[in-house]
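[Solved] Which block belongs to which protein?

Original post:
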Amino acid sequence: MNSSHLLIKARNLTKKFGNLTAVDHVDFEVFKNECVGFLGPNGAGKTTTVRMVYCFLPLTEGELSVANMNVSNQQRNIKKMIGVAPQEDNLDPDFTVLKNLLVYARYFDISKAEASARAKQLLSFFQLEEKQDVLITHLSTGMKRRLILARALINEPQLLLLDEPTAGLDPQNRHIVWDKIRSLKKRGVTIILTTHYMEEATALCDRTFIMDRGRIIENGPPAELIRKHVGEDVLEVNNNEKVIKLLTKEFSDADFEVFGERIHVFTKKPHGVFELFLKKFPRNNVSIRNANLEDVFLKLTGRRLRD
């Protein structure tokens, strides 16, 4: 992309907490009007990276700039142009929905009249106008998440940072949030999100950065990463020695992963090759599906649980 559109630049970015290196000398760039996702297992460093971008955490080493401003000494100006929607619910339970927005607007020196106008627009945008006089404790989880997003937009930010924006939401609320994120991108807002939902990253992100153990181990558009690491289709079949021998013979260049009682087979061969295999060797308990970003994620970061 054109360097004049560069919004965030990180070089050798590092964050340590005592002996723990949470972010380990990473480089990345984010351009204006992109939606970029940071993916990774628990403890990979994605949330820590985002928190350094919005000046919540200081750098240990390296360089990080936002709109050509250094995060180490220009925090005030950077925070003015950023909206942040954290994963945790930090709404004020003593205030109503509308009051939460109006009080937050004071941090940005927004006049009362302007804050009121913006708040009303945002409540309408997130389908919360009927709840404006309701206390936070009476809201559903989905409503709270949408209000947190609305609050992040009260200062009309150029850059929106979303930490697990749909965590814990049901499918209906998740898709409402996705639609709003797409709408914001169309308006020219640059968006960075962290997520555990691979479907979410595929649906929303122009590019994804996959992190593991504090490092960026891969990046690129989701579709390109899928083609590069997995291929077009995935064959899933019950695990036994006879099947493994047969698959190894038929797909000598394929990648095999055993997950419990199932084998996942990835191949770079053209679409339809697995269907031909099943015609020659019909079996029960076999499925063929499109490859997805979750396959890439698990292949690169492993399947072991992380605390």
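(Second protein starts here: sequence line, then its structure tokens.)
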Amino acid sequence: MAAELRANGHKLTPQRLAVVRVLREATEHLTPLQVLERARGIRSGVGLTTVYRTLDLLSELGFVRRVHLGGGCQAYAPVRQRAGHHLVCQGCHHVVDFPCAGLTELIEQTARQTGFTVASHLLEFEGLCPACQ
């Protein structure tokens, strides 16, 4: 991520690099406050504004994706696969990625029928995980 940010002309301050490192090492979806807490463990002086700006930039460039947790809350995860399909628990806000066979055909059919060029998509199902049921 850092090399591509630099190649695209974006500043790589020590604080931004700490945020990038947190996201690169993340194995789960993180809220901005979780990113902030972990980034401050790497580099003191990281501010919430830096976290949000970096998350917005990385999201715009396709390196992380937003996951909507309900109630206006969002989490972010590094993009390891281009398709973002999630199950979001309304109780504990646990997020699970899942494969979605057949979605490519649906997107292509929708594009043909509407004339839209689909650049990206986000599919989320909300409900209760086994632990919260």
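Accepted answer:
You had them paired correctly. Confirming on the second one: The chain has a mean pLDDT of 85.
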